[in-house]
Design goal:
The complex is a heterodimer of chains A (463) and B (175).
Chain A (H helix, E strand, L loop, with lengths): L17 H13 L4 H27 L14 H12 L2 H11 L9 H22 L26 H34 L3 H10 L7 H34 L11 H27 L8 H32 L11 H5 L3 H13 L7 H4 L2 H28 L14 H24 L5 H11 L1 H11 L1
Helix pairs in contact in A: 1-16, 2-15, 3-5, 3-9, 3-14, 4-5, 4-8, 5-6, 5-9, 5-15, 6-7, 6-8, 8-9, 9-10, 9-14, 12-14
Chain B lengths: L3 E7 L2 H13 L6 E3 L8 H4 L6 H27 L12 H31 L20 E6 L6 H9 L5 E6 L1
Antiparallel strand pairs in B: 1-3, 1-4, 2-3
Helix pairs in contact in B: 3-4
Classes of the chains: A mainly alpha (463), B alpha+beta (175).
C-alpha cells in the first residue's frame, strides 16, 4: 500500500472505518431532512419562481425591459453570464487538474464543486440565451442546413467559439460528474431499505458491480477525462475572454485577457466552493472530512489566483495610461474610471478583489472557518463587479462623447439575476439532499493512507 | 455435479491482495474481485489486462478533429465563403487560425463522450440494469474474492487454502 509522510496533515479526522465513511455520507440521504433544509429550499424556490417569471416576461416583451441602451448594449446580462461561467470553473479544475497533480485533498470537495459547476454553467447559459431576444431562434447558432440558401454560422466569430466551448464544457462536466457518481449511487442502492428509494438509486447506479475490471476501466476513464478536461477548463474561459478581446472597444481589446480571465475564474470559482462547502460542512456534519487543512489549501489557491488577477489589473491600468491613448482614459482600469461617475464600482472591485483577500496572507485568517467564509462572499461580490466594470465602464465612455451615458438597471435586470441565484441554490440544495456530497469511493481509497488514526498507528509502529 | 461458486470476504484490500497472491501461486484461478473502491496492484495478480479505453478515446478524438476541420472547410471555404472583417477565406490554411478553438472543443467533445459511452457499454452499466454484485456489502466495506469450480477442479482444496488466509467469512453457493 502507498503510504504518506507522517508530517502531512491528515485529511480524514478521528478514527473512521470504511463503514463509518459510508454511514456519514449516506445517512443524510436516508434520514429525514432537517427543518432548515425545507426553509432554505422554500426561500430558494420562491426566488427561482420569481426569476422564471421575470424571464418569461422578458421573453414576451423583448429585452427592452432591461436597462440596456444604445451605448451600453451589454450590461448585467453578460456580466451575469461571465460571472456564472467563472464560478463554474472550480469544479472541473478541482476534479481534473488536481487529479492530474495527485492532490488528495480534492476528494472531500470535488463532488460538490462539480455539482456547483454544472448548475453555474446552466445559469450562465441562460443569459446569452435570453439576451438573444428571440430565444425561439436559438438554434440559429448551430451550423444546420437551412432555407436561407444554406447560410452558415460564422466560424470566425468568438461568439460561435463560445457556443462550442460552453456546450462542450457543460456536457463533459456532466459526464465526468456522473461517472464518478455511479459507484456511490450503487453504495446507496445497496444500503437503502425503503423500496421506492432503493429502486430510484438502482436506476441511477446503472447496475454497477464494482468488479476488478470495472474499477480498472473506471480509473482509466477518470484519468483520461481529467486529461481532456484540463485544457478544456483553460480554453473555455479563454474563449469567453475573446468575446471581449477580439473587439475594438477600448479596455476590451487586450491581449492579456485570456490568462487573466482564467485566473479570475479560478479565483471566483474557489470562492463559491468555500461559500457552499463551509455551510455544508456544518449542516451535514462533515467536519471530519472537510477540515481546516482543506480550507487552508483552498485559500492558498485563492491567494495565488487573486495575486494573478491583481497583477493583471495593475498591468491594464499602467499600459492604458502609458499608451497615452485618450480612448483608454475611461476604460475600466484607468484614472477616468477611478475618479468618474463609476468610481464606486471601480473601488468596489479593488477593495473586494485585492484589498480584502490580502488578509488571507495571515495564517490565522486563512485557517479560520468564519473568515474564510466571509472573505469568499466578498470575493464573489468583487468578481461580479469585475465583469460589470469591464463591460459597463468600458462601454459607457468610448469613442463618441455625444453618446456617453450611464447604465440604469431595471427591476428586470435585478429579477433575472436574483432568479438565477434562486435556481442555482434550489438545484444545489436538491443535490445536497439526494446525492452523495462527497466522492465516497475516492475517499475510502485514501482512508488508510491519510486518515488521522491510521497515520498515528503507522507512526507508532515506526518508532 | 452442480457448479459451485465461493465468495471469500475480506475486510481490507491488502488482506485480499495477499490471499489472491497466495491462491494464484498455488495455481488457483481467481474469477473476479468485488470492492468498494479500486484495489491498486490487484490486476497483475489475478491476470487482468490493461484496458484499451485510452486508445478508444484517442480514436474518437481524432475523428472529432477531422470532422471539425472538414466541416469548417465546407461551411466557410467551399460552400459559402464570406468576407468577415477582411479575414482571408480563399484558402483553408489562411482561415485556419480562426478554426483552432472549435477544432479543439470538438476533439474533446468526441473523445470524452465517445470514451464515456464505450465505458458504460463495456462495463454493462446502463440505465435500468439490475445490480450484479454478489453481496451488498461490496459497495460498503467488504472486499470479495470469487472462485468458481468450473475454473478450478479441486474447489474444496481452494476453500481450504482460503481458510488459511486472513479471511472474514466464506460463502459457498451452487449455480
Amino acid at each position: 500500500m502507498q503510504s504518506e509522510a507522517a508530517i502531512r496533515t491528515p485529511l480524514i479526522l478521528g478514527h473512521k472505518t470504511y463503514h463509518d465513511l459510508t454511514h456519514d455520507i449516506v445517512a443524510p440521504i436516508e434520514n429525514k431532512a432537517p427543518r432548515g433544509w425545507y426553509v432554505l429550499v422554500t426561500i430558494a424556490a420562491l426566488i427561482a419562481a420569481y426569476g422564471i417569471g421575470c424571464i418569461l416576461y422578458l421573453i414576451s416583451k423583448g429585452i427592452g425591459v432591461w436597462g440596456l441602451n444604445k451605448t451600453i448594449d451589454w450590461a448585467w446580462d453578460i456580466t451575469n453570464f461571465v460571472w456564472w461561467v467563472g464560478i463554474g470553473h472550480a469544479g472541473t479544475l478541482i476534479s481534473a487538474v488536481l487529479l492530474l497533480f495527485r492532490q488528495r485533498w480534492r476528494m472531500a470537495i470535488n463532488r460538490s464543486a462539480e455539482a456547483m459547476t454544472i448548475f453555474a454553467v446552466m445559469m450562465a447559459a441562460t443569459f446569452p440565451g435570453i439576451h438573444m431576444g428571440r430565444i425561439w431562434m436559438a438554434y440559429w447558432v448551430l451550423p444546420l442546413p437551412n432555407q436561407f440558401g444554406s447560410l452558415w454560422v460564422n466560424f470566425n466569430s468568438p461568439l460561435l467559439w463560445d457556443v462550442f466551448a460552453i456546450s462542450t464544457y457543460f456536457s463533459v462536466s456532466v459526464v465526468f460528474w456522473y461517472i464518478g457518481l455511479i459507484p456511490d449511487f450503487a453504495t446507496i442502492r445497496d444500503r437503502m431499505t425503503r423500496p421506492g428509494m432503493k429502486k430510484f438509486y438502482s436506476i441511477l447506479s446503472f447496475g454497477w458491480t464494482g468488479n476488478a475490471k470495472a474499477w480498472t476501466r473506471f480509473e482509466e476513464v477518470s484519468l483520461v477525462l481529467a486529461g481532456l478536461a484540463t485544457p478544456l477548463v483553460f480554453s473555455v474561459h479563454s474563449v469567453v475572454s475573446m468575446d471581449f478581446a477580439t473587439s475594438l472597444v477600448p479596455g476590451w481589446h487586450s491581449t492579456i485577457f485570456p490568462p487573466y480571465f482564467v485566473a479570475g475564474a479560478i479565483f471566483s470559482g474557489f470562492a463559491m466552493v468555500q461559500t457552499l462547502a463551509l455551510v455544508m460542512r456544518k449542516v451535514m456534519h462533515l467536519e471530519a472530512y472537510i477540515t481546516r487543512k482543506h480550507v487552508e489549501y483552498m485559500n492558498i489557491v485563492i491567494m495565488v489566483t487573486g495575486g494573478i488577477v491583481a497583477i493583471a489589473y495593475a498591468t491594464e491600468f499602467f499600459i492604458g495610461w502609458y499608451s497615452g491613448v485618450e480612448y483608454e482614459a475611461y476604460a475600466y482600469m484607468s484614472v477616468g474610471a477611478a475618479t468618474g461617475e463609476y468610481a464606486w464600482a471601480f473601488w468596489a472591485l479593488i477593495i473586494c478583489n485585492i484589498i480584502v483577500p490580502l488578509s488571507l496572507w495571515s495564517k490565522k485568517v486563512r485557517t479560520s472557518f468564519f473568515w474564510a467564509w466571509a472573505i469568499s462572499i466578498v470575493i464573489n461580490i468583487g468578481m461580479w463587479f469585475e465583469r460589470f466594470d469591464i463591460i459597463v465602464l468600458c462601454l459607457h465612455k468610448d469613442y463618441v462623447p455625444s453618446s456617453w451615458t450611464m447604465f440604469h438597471p431595471t427591476w428586470m435586470d435585478v429579477g433575472t439575476f436574483l432568479g438565477t441565484l434562486g435556481i442555482f441554490f434550489t438545484l444545489y440544495l436538491l443535490f445536497a439532499r439526494f446525492f452523495p456530497v462527497i466522492a465516497l469511493n475516492e475517499l475510502k481509497s485514501i482512508l488508510k493512507m491519510s486518515g488521522e488514526s491510521y497515520k498515528q498507528e503507522a507512526e507508532h509502529h515506526h518508532h | 455435479m452442480a457448479n459451485k461458486v465461493v465468495y471469500a470476504v475480506y475486510e481490507d484490500p491488502e488482506l485480499l491482495k495477499d490471499a489472491a497472491r497466495k491462491l494464484v501461486t498455488a495455481g488457483v484461478k481467481v474469477r473476479d474481485v468485488f470492492s468498494p473502491f479500486p484495489v491498486h496492484g490487484l490486476d497483475p495478480i489475478i491476470g487482468i489486462k490493461r484496458t484499451r479505453l485510452g486508445i478508444v478515446s484517442f480514436m474518437f478524438g481524432i475523428t472529432g478533429t477531422s470532422l471539425a476541420l472538414l466541416g469548417m472547410w465546407y461551411f466557410m471555404i467551399h460552400d459559402w465563403p464570406m468576407d468577415i472583417g477582411g479575414k482571408p477565406s480563399f484558402h483553408f490554411y489562411q482561415n485556419l487560425p480562426a478554426f483552432i478553438p472549435i477544432t479543439f472543443e470538438f476533439t474533446v467533445l468526441c473523445a470524452a463522450h465517445g470514451m464515456a459511452i464505450t465505458y458504460l457499454i463495456r462495463n454493462k452499466t446502463l440505465p435500468g440494469m439490475p445490480p450484479r454484485n454478489p453481496d451488498p456489502r461490496t459497495t460498503d466495506d467488504k472486499f470479495i474474492l470469487e472462485v468458481r469450480s468450473e475454473d478450478n477442479g479441486d474447489i474444496d482444496g481452494v476453500v481450504g487454502l482460503l481458510r488459511g488466509t486472513s479471511v472474514y467469512e466464506i460463502n459457498e453457493r451452487q449455480y
